[in-house]
Amino acid sequence: MQNLETRYTHSPLDIRHYSTEELRREFLVEKVFVPGEISLTYTHNDRMIFGGVTPTEKPLEIVLSDALGVDYFLERREMGVINVGGPGKIIIDGITDAMGKQDGYYIGKETRHVIFESEDAAAPAKFYISSVPAHHKYSNVKISINDIKPVETGEGKTMNKRKIFQYIHPNVCESCQLQMGYTILEEGSGWNTMPCHTHERRMEAYVYFDMESPNKVFHMMGKPDETKHLVVDNEQAVISPSWSIHSGVGTSNYSFIWAMCGENITYTDMDMVPMDELK
User: Fold this and answer.
1) What single DSSP character describes residue 191?
2) How many CA atoms lie within 13 A of 73 on its CB side?
3) Burial, 210: exposed, middle or buried (Cβ in 10 Å; 0-12, 13-18, 19+)?
4) Which residues does 264 contact at the CB level (< 8 Å), separation at least 6?
5) Where Zn(2+) is bound, by residue (predicted)?
6) How far is CA 104 from CA 5, 55, 143, in A?
7) Is the Cβ–Cβ distance between 191 and 159 less than 8 Å?
8) Which among 256, 75, 270 has a CA at the least distance from the CA of 162?
9) Ranges under pLDDT 50 in the chain
10) Is 30 one of the annotated binding-site residues?
């Protein structure tokens, strides 16, 4: 089964008077990994499609043609994949690769078939995908977390000690506009980014996971001088428009996958927000 939900774009003025329920409805994706299903969100922020593919007894393939006005899903798109669940495999135009936990893949445009499978239906793979429009075909590349030298940043005293694994990044593989990575906070740390930033030239989507109940993440969003927040549970995702900060703090440490697209693929292209300007 495949579900595709569409979310539209918003001006910062739109959300000024939103209730908690309205804010959650527009920016929070509550169900990402549904056993035996494909659960996707199509945001009109740079036309990113993201979500979870969770095969159990049967293989799953994303089929989107009529919705996108194309003959097949990746005809004019590229896609990133990271497995955050049990062992599985991915079959790309007939070529099979094993996908353990934390394995990733960059899949270029014009790839016709991408099939996802789990080794054990009782402990299924959880493939998180992000797809954006692409203008050029780049080579498909498997990416293992063991082959990535993480960026280690933050400090224990500011509760933001973390490792950033850049999967789809110019240092690892070529892409048109997609960037994607995996951040793991150390035990005792809760902030993922503070001081925060915006990047007017790119939007972003987060999925938070590796949290045991009843822990939560408080995801901060909005213009720097008019912030709001979303309370996020394990394996839930957030849409972050280009004008919004995207920072969060958890009641325990956690992990998250970030995916970005927009005008460039310069990871450091961000506009830092001084702490005394936050409101």
Assistant:
1) B
2) 25
3) middle
4) 177, 201, 202
5) 197, 199, 204, 246
6) 24, 16, 5
7) yes
8) 256
9) none
10) no
Question: What radius of gyration do the chain's Cα atoms show?
Answer: 18
Say if residue 11 is exposed, middle or buried (CB neighbours under 10 Å; 0-12, 13-18, 19+): exposed
- Per-residue pLDDT of 66-77, as tens digits, reads 889 999 999 999
How many Cα atoms within 13 Å fall on the side-chain side of residue 250?
29
How far apart are alpha carbons 193 and 23 in whole angstroms?
21
pLDDT 10s digits, 84-93:
999 999 999 9
Q: Is 246 annotated as a binding residue?
A: yes
Cβ burial of 66 (10 Å; 0-12, 13-18, 19+) is exposed
Assess contact for 257 and 179: CB atoms under 8 A.
no
Identity (one letter) of the amino acid at 139?
S
Residue labelled with tokens 């539209």: 8
For position 268, what pLDDT does the model report? 83
Residue with tokens 């004008």: 243
- Other C-beta atoms closer than 10 Å to the C-beta of 261 total 26
Rounded CA-CA distance 190/153 in Å is 13
